[in-house]
User: Fold these one by one.
Assistant:
Number 1:
Amino acid sequence: MNRGDLRRIDFNLLVVFETLMQERSVSRAAERLFLGQPATSAALARLRDLFDDPLFVRTGRTMEPTSRAEEIFIQLQPALDAISGVLSNTSTFDPATSENVFTIGLSDDVEFALLPALLKRLRTEAPGIVLVVRRANYLLMPHLLSTGEISVGVAFTRDLPANAKRRILRRSRPRVLRADSVPGTLSLDEFCARPHAMVSHAGDLSSYVDEQLATLGRSRHVVLAVPQFNGLGTLLAGTDIISTVPDYAAAALSAGGGLRDEEVPFESPVFELSMVWRSAQDNDPAERWLRSRIQMFAGDPDSL
């Protein structure tokens, strides 16, 4: 195909194809693209004509891509990223007049501890923008980034997709949260003897705390695992249960009263809270502005 033949191609079809590859479902792809299911099915029919291949074969409730579809997807994603980057570089962004919709991924500790200050700044500079927050953590972040469901995320992260970039926002140490009125700080013996609550995104009952205690020949007893941080204050109130959380989350939780935080009674690791984003939007003026504000109001310059 020569360049002149590109005039007969509807490039919207390529976006539909990419979304179908990511979702493996016509209905979910339609929902993400804000299209009706009949329109998405019609686009799939046109794609099959365009590439002269079935592209997807229904297997149970999902649509499995053919080998031809996999081959097209590998070549198409970098091309769409490049086109997106070119168009972003030619656009302008004025926060004072912008009505952009930004979709970001935040872990819940970041959402309740760090988002309020960021939001106040965004509302001051860009009162017309819309901020959509998706719940993200180290398990969800790779998928949200690779599918484009978010443009930027903040969380403790592990493996990331190849199309993502990362910047460390702050280095955090854990703190112990407690609601009791017993004076003084907990010794290691007291820490191990107390019942513990932990935040577990995957439903596990152990974490780095248990790994650190194991190196000392010690252990703890977890009596509660919850999927998010922001309910810990209510759960710990009136009990002898303690919880170990990141320092910025401990500060936000104890600021409301009824809780106090202190150092953990053992040598603790340092954790890196990162901002991650899609490479295709690295030079997008609007996204660069948003990332700069996240760096400014969610980052900790003293710890970098």
Number 2:
Amino acid sequence: MEKINALSIDLEEWFHSELLEGQRPPIFQAPEATQQVLDLLDRYQTKGTFFIVGEVAERHPELVRAIFERGHEIGCHGFSHQPLWRLNEDSLREELRRFHSVMEGILEKVVIKGFRAPCFSLDNRTKWALRVLVDFGHQYDASIFPVKLNPLYGVSGAPMQPYRISLKDVRKEDRSSPLMEFPTPPLTLWKFKIPIAGGFYLRIFPLSFLHWGLKRINRKQPFLFYFHPWEGYEGTPRLKLSFTNRLISYYGIHSALKKLEFLLNHFKFARVDQILGLR
């Protein structure tokens, strides 16, 4: 039986990236970049989860309403896209309070089940955030990247399939935990774990390898795929950056949307909450 995978869209502005070396020009393109993603999902009759940055929602409430009215799940991506390592418990509570206040103003009584930390910044150094998520009524988190290749994120030894996450150790399952975790699984080849399920990895790897690798993951489990609208938008501004940051930020933008369309045509996707069986 064909697996149904989880599709997530991290709705943020292009300048929210941690790789832009502090530059934040006031050029706002989220609606234009997101509209082409929405149209693509409509074309393939696919619903996904949009993890939205609160300040984007505050500036563009009509965009949030359009996403919701098309049947997509609304999730939380923080208010100001601050990684957890820059916050503490009090400041995260304020971020979530502001996010939920904005969403209630736009969508009234909408239930926000899911959270994704900016930059996948949940690990055992920031596990204090899990209790805050529970207090705000979130039912699942989607912030664990179970391979450590990047200095910004990654949790070696974390499960690669959905699990009830321990509030004491994010690498462990606790069946009594009130919070589900849906990690972004890598491709496992021998002893190697290769991230392929979205972001820069979507842009840098050949489509044939992505297709083969995701099919291989599907032999055992569904995968959680992620995409940023700015990654597939030709109008994303190009800033002067270091070679590495420029490569990771801009390589493959011209083909990212076509790659996403190919995956929508060859895999089945649904909202994260539906895959997890949450209501």
Number 3:
Amino acid sequence: MRHGKKIAHLGRKTPHRKYMLANMACSLIEHKSINTTVAKAKALKKYIEPLITKSKSDSTHNRRIVFSYLKNKYAVTELFRDVSVKIGDRPGGYTRIIKLGNRLGDNASMAMIELVDYNTIYNTANDTTKKTRRRKKASKSSDTLVEDAAPVVEEAAPVVEEAAPVVEQAAPEIENNETNQSDSDKKETDL
């Protein structure tokens, strides 16, 4: 039975597991996303999220604590300079695990773990604004957005009409070239 055993051992002894998680955490900080197995990704999430929380307040004490876990001064400086600035207003949940399927060699379930604020696919300009639950204010603002968008569409229509004659002018030149080539081909066959 597994009563009270909260640490995922990952089939390794304690020192090997600590250094493996430290290396994976440094790679995650450096590359912003890494591919690994689901079990290692879950263990890494528990390992790195407290360190990111420590990096929010930049002090010598916090830097030394994080360095004792990561054991890489370049990863520590990037964590405290770049990552903590971007994550500063987020209260938690700094990483995301996306399952990728099974590995071909041994059929292990794979996952991608990434820092949430660095993914440009999921983060758009609209997601950065804070959403409210009040529906009345949201509907008023959406009505004004629709009214503002209508003139922009009307202005774009004449531009498309102007571009069409340019295409028509280019077409006869191509036809003339084709007829010239076919005439030269006929002359060569006559000879």
Number 4:
Amino acid sequence: MWFTRVSIHNPVMATMVMLAFVVLGLFSYQRLSIDQFPDIDIPTVVVQMDYPGASPEIVESEVTKKIEEAVNTVAGIDSIFSRSYEGSSVVIIQFKLDVDGRKAAEDVREKVTLVKPTLRDEVKDARISRFDPTSQPVFNVAILSTDGRRSAQELTTWATQVLQKRLENVRGVGAVSVIGGVQREINIHVRPAAMEAAGVGVDQIVAALRSENQELPLGAIRSKERESVVQLDARMKTPADFGNIIVTRRGGVAIRLGQLADVVDGPQELESLALYNGQRTVLLSVQKSQGENTIAVVDGLRQALTEVEPQLPSGVKTEINRDNSRAIRVSVANVQRTLIEGALLTIGIVFLFLNSWRSTVITGLTLPIALIGTFLFMYVSGFTINTVTLMALSLCVGLLIDDAIVVRENIVRHVQMGKSAHQAALDGTNEIGLAVLATTLSIVAVFLPIGFMGGIVGKFFHEFGITIVAAVLISMFVSFTLDPMLSSVWHDPQAHGVGRARQ
């Protein structure tokens, strides 16, 4: 083969090509994302619309059917499911697996926007979300009061103003949600007796609060010399200011809110609750951005927690109660250990049967070059280091060295026939080149269809089949270039001795 001839005649160039595989592979390995499973796009879009006070039958006829008819015209739909509940409609659109999930969500959003004017005014705006397996939280941190003196409102204030902002600045973080938090809220508790005596209704109080507590731009005043911006600044500064709001006037006397209601500065109404070992806590749940390295994101979050620890208020501590990187680290570490053990055992068996450390080194070099070179292909293809791709590399360890053993053994046989190392490398490789090529292509023919299987299973095994094919092809290239070149320049005295004895 011509590249074998070029490799033998230009050993420096062949060496540089192999080094390029290794350097680029290591470069790619450092930049590959690490996850437990491949990043799979399952094109499923969910449309949720609320119709307060409506029965399931009304929701079905007034909302659900109209949404189904609108989105049914979107291309690539596989099936549509819907559920109508009291005051709520849920429509689930499943697309074919070859459809891009983001484009499908945009198409559905466009159709729902067109049908919204035909719905009743009481129907709320649609909430359209795309099913994304990576949208699950990867990290949770609980904020606890160690002495029980800190209220949930104080914990929430510190969590939202300090810790949440610090975690959101970590590279790769998509969103940080607060669970079980209680925000500060100004509550107006009306006194019905006082309202009845003053002849004031609740709607008047609501209207007064809306009109008096606001900031509005009122335009500008222009003169020849200057231009001044006019703005209404009527936002309440303190809770006591709410009591001075004038609700109405009776006989020229102003009736203020403080005469009709009690203004209470306290926590908002409890809507969610977070418990950690039975203790009330405020939980920060972190989601990573799509395509980001889970382990790198979690490491950044842990570092952020360490940096913010000196700023913790007295009697407050943080506890990590969810870390998705642990399972990934353990899974990837186990597969990596299996891969290394398999490689060492393979090289040991080769040495045991070839009984030549030169032949073992020459054939064994194929293994790291092919494995590291595969990382370059994975990086270019957008794959990640996960359980599936590492399992593929583990399974093909034995296949990667087969071609090198066959080529090396045939070269040694030609040397024992009395040929020079240079000529033996050429003749030995050319003699069995087609056979080795046929063997490698048969392996490719077995694993390549796995990479293009259909369905959800095919999505998972796409990276598996393609990774094995890439590794096997790289090992064949190394066997036809590096192995003959090393055999021609790095002579085996034992093989030459046998050749001279036969002559």
